[in-house]
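Dear H.,

Thanks for agreeing to be a second pair of eyes. The structure we're designing against is below in token form, covering all 318 positions.
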């Protein structure tokens, strides 16, 4: 369906609109049909809505892997793929997240990103935008949580702000699968189920050769990024956090830095300020890593989940 219209003055208009998902973060975008390429006018409108709402969801889309790549490119250049066990077979820049196993082997990465984080903060130029497409979504579980880091920065008390302004946090990659520290709504039963699953996966992993992902992650040196960064597009200040991979703050003793980081992460992700996105098949979600942190949540193993993920190149955070 063609959604452009001509205005009386001859300028192109679009029907692309945003409906907020919460009062503090996120919007559903309507008026887009991603079974075809977006027009330049639509792309401009999507970018504008994206930087305003920080997380956008385009629901119920029939989108091919090629179409998904072209849509992601409206935010910038797609990050080159690194060899892993989970690249899409025909489009290796698409990373597959899944709990599905075929012939005993996982078809995608499982249990990752289950803590509050911005993506790939352990590299020099972390991803600017991440996009997920829900290829197969579970009836239960598998929600994605989002928190607004402009808001979290603005809510800091003056003393905390003066303590972190101008300082850099040390980010170091850690294997953190099946952590689920981002979700504060887990029941005791779910926690036990997660522990059992984690032990099972760790035992399986110990019995096989290290994957390319595991080998690469062992060689990543630590990075230093501002605790509060200035957004490269909007110019606004935002906290820049990775709850499980920040290991200190430059110039502060660890016994001061670590409780401080833990506290600001906790305050930044108060449950009443969190967007809990419940996926439907065909949903496409994009988020702004420079102003958002996110966390995956638990998917019961009997529920199939297959997500395609693309990331857009970022700049050095300042
Ligand atoms: Fe992530």
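And this is the sequence the design step returned. I haven't edited it by hand at all.
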């Amino acid at each position: 369906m063609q959604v452009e219209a001509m205005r009386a003055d001859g300028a192109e208009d679009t029907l692309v609109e945003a409906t907020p998902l919460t009062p503090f973060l996120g919007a559903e975008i309507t008026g887009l049909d991603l079974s075809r390429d977006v027009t330049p006018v639509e792309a401009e409108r999507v970018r504008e809505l994206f930087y305003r709402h920080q997380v956008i969801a385009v629901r119920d889309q029939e989108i091919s892997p090629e179409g998904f790549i072209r849509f992601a490119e409206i935010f910038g250049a797609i990050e080159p793929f690194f060899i892993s066990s989970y690249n899409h077979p025909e489009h290796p820049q698409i990373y597959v997240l899944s709990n599905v196993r075929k012939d005993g082997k996982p078809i995608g990465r499982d249990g990752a990103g289950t803590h509050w984080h911005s993506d790939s903060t352990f590299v020099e130029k972390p991803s600017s935008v991440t996009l997920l497409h829900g290829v197969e979504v579970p009836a239960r579980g598998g929600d994605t949580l989002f928190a607004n880091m402009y808001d979290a920065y603005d809510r800091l008390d003056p003393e905390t702000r003066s303590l972190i302004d101008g300082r850099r946090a040390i980010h170091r990659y850690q294997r953190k699968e099946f952590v689920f520290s981002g979700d504060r709504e887990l029941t005791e039963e779910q926690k036990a189920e997660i522990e059992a699953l984690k032990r099972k996966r760790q035992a399986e992993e110990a019995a096989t050769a290290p994957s390319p992902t595991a080998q690469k992650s062992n060689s990543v040196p630590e990075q230093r990024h501002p605790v509060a960064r200035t957004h490269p597009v909007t110019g606004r200040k935002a906290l820049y956090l990775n709850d499980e991979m920040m290991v200190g703050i430059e110039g502060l003793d660890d016994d001061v830095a670590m409780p401080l980081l833990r506290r600001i992460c906790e305050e930044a992700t108060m449950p009443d300020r969190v967007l809990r996105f419940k996926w439907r098949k065909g949903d496409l979600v994009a988020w702004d890593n420079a102003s958002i942190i996110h966390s995956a949540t638990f998917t019961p193993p009997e529920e199939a989940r297959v997500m395609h993920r693309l990331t857009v190149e970022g700049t050095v955070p300042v």
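Two observations from my side: The pocket of fe (ii) ion is lined by residues 113, 117, 119, 294 (CB under 6 Å). The chain has one domain: 5-145+174-221+275-312.

Warmly,
E.
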